[in-house]
């Protein structure tokens, strides 16, 4: 009798672990997915850790360099139009190149985001996709500027997804030197105050010839500290990591010269990352107590590599990983486990992902994380067996819920704590969307079966009873989507 009870308890634990594997580590359960994970929940997740990185959305195949070259063409068209237009000429009509450019860019960006959302709704490897989304948010590039909106999709596909299971050093270098990041944080315009380019302008020169961005009349070239500050504060050691304002300035000087190919350069370099020696601040730099010899782009590369290897970086980022996957206030033991694996493997992110899967603290039954709007929508499509058609299906809802596509409000990325997303007004908006979604998606699906498939052993008796008693299938599906178990993970 005791043996039978023990076997039943073991099976119950495995059922719960299977539900946790799919709904906490992943993006929500599709039909049959919890059953698939039941045999070996941890093995199910580890099988999604691939050396080649994350899956790529099926989107516009254009690269960031191609998008930026097109954007430069639009800028040239705009200048030509303004130069040719007299004060009494009528305003541009529907063929206005500026309006055309903005419309095309919005469509491209929207297609990129919709492709990412479809991948999230349909992928059989939800943990792999969630891991990629974590890193995309960590290294945020926002579409808050028109020029970054054109490349935020390619940025994620080129700089983030291929490296999410590589070393942190590789991922850091790819993210920080991508044209999208250089544009978002204004690094492309940063010039050393004692560089050859700055000295030339001070002497009255107005053309450098190698593409160094020159200031408008009456303005001067200058050092921009945005990228250096965000790398230290948000991407590596964190606020408590031991750096000072002097370190930010020194690092910014080391980063000068990192820019993007423009109109004055070879067409093959247009929109590509370039290093301009004339814009680089000469001399040795000292950052966080380490002296770096004078040099070119290798100076910044050496600082990035050292930042990636600092213990403070491991501590800061492992805390973020634990906070994203497990709880707003994660167990210290979990952070310690992740940090230890990070240090032991030299920041091998695939190994850190395995440590997360192996950590017993990550499998606690309590659902401590509240879904962001994006997570809520994607998990709803996964439960119902569908996917968003295009950006017009996504944008209005995400805008209303406060998580506009590709548009995090700051370089910090989107918040992930419950308080940011669970306000009463936000819950009302989720309810309205759930009712509309359920009305369109529930025609031929029994909500009781969907609830079992979506939540597995996490389905509570009160929720199951409420769904069973619903008067219509649409009402039952809406109840499922708004249940406490579904809203949390």
Characteristic terms for this protein:
single chain, 489 residues, mainly alpha, two-stranded antiparallel sheet, 25 helices, DUF1800, DUF1800 family protein
Provide an overview of this structure.
The protein has a two-stranded antiparallel ribbon with strand order 1-2. A two-stranded antiparallel ribbon has the order 3-4. Helix 12 crosses helix 13. The protein is built from 25 helices and four strands. The longest helix is centred in the N-terminal third of the chain and has 26 residues. Strand 3 and strand 4 form a beta hairpin. The radius of gyration is 25 Å and the shape is globular. The chain is an all-alpha fold. It folds into four domains: 142 residues, no CATH class; 120 residues, no CATH class; 125 residues, no CATH class; 53 residues. This is DUF1800 family protein. InterPro entries: DUF1800. It comes from Phenylobacterium glaciei.
On the 0 to 100 scale, the average pLDDT is: 90
- Stretches where pLDDT is under 50 for at least 5 consecutive residues are 215-219
The secondary structure category is mainly alpha
Domains counted in the coordinates: how many?
4
What is the share of helical residues?
Answer: 55-70%
Q: Give the overall silhouette.
A: globular
Q: How many helices in DSSP terms?
A: 25
Protein name: DUF1800 family protein
């Amino acid at each position: 009798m005791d043996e039978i009870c023990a076997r039943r308890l073991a099976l119950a634990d495995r059922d719960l672990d299977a539900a946790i594997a799919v709904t906490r580590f992943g993006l929500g359960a599709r039909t049959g997915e919890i059953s698939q994970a039941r045999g070996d929940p941890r093995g199910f997740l580890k099988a999604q850790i691939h050396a080649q990185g994350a899956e790529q959305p099926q989107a516009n195949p254009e690269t960031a360099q191609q998008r930026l070259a097109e954007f430069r063409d639009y800028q040239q068209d705009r200048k030509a139009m303004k130069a040719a237009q007299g004060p009494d000429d009528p305003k541009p009509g529907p063929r206005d190149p500026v309006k055309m450019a903005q419309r095309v860019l919005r469509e491209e960006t929207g297609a990129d985001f919709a492709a990412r959302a479809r991948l999230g709704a349909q992928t059989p490897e939800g943990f792999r996709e969630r891991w990629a989304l974590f890193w995309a948010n960590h290294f945020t590039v926002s579409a808050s500027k028109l020029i970054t909106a054109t490349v935020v999709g390619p940025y994620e596909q080129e700089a983030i997804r291929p490296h999410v299971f590589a070393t942190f050093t590789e991922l850091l270098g790819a993210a920080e030197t991508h044209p999208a990041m250089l544009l978002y944080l204004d690094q492309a315009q940063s010039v050393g105050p004692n560089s050859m380019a700055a000295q030339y302008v001070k002497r009255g020169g107005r053309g450098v010839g190698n593409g160094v961005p020159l200031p408008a009349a009456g303005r001067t070239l200058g050092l921009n500290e945005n990228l250096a500050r965000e790398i230290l504060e948000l991407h590596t050691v964190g606020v408590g990591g031991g750096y000072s304002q002097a370190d930010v300035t020194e690092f910014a000087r080391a980063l000068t010269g990192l820019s993007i190919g423009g109109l004055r350069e070879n067409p093959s370099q247009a929109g590509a990352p370039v290093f301009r020696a004339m814009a680089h601040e000469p001399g040795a730099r000292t950052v966080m107590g380490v002296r770096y010899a004078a040099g070119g782009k290798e100076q910044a590369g050496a600082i990035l590599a050292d930042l990636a290897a600092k213990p403070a970086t491991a501590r800061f980022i492992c805390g973020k990983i634990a906070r994203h996957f497990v709880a707003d206030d994660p167990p210290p033991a979990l952070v310690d486990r992740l940090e230890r694996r990070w240090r032991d493997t030299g920041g091998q992110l695939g190994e850190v992902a395995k440590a997360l899967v192996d950590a017993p603290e990550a499998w606690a039954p309590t659902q401590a994380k509240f879904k962001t709007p994006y997570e809520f929508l994607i998990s709803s499509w996964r439960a119902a067996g569908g996917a968003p058609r295009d950006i017009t299906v996504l944008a209005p809802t995400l805008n209303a819920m406060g998580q506009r596509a590709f548009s995090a409000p700051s370089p910090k990325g989107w918040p992930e704590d419950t308080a940011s997303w669970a306000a009463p007004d936000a819950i009302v908006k989720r309810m309205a969307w759930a009712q509309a979604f359920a009305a369109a998606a529930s025609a031929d699906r029994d909500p009781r079966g969907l609830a079992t498939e979506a939540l597995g052993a996490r389905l509570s008796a009160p929720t199951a009873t409420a769904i069973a008693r619903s008067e219509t299938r649409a009402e039952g599906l809406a109840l499922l989507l708004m249940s406490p178990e579904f809203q949390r993970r």
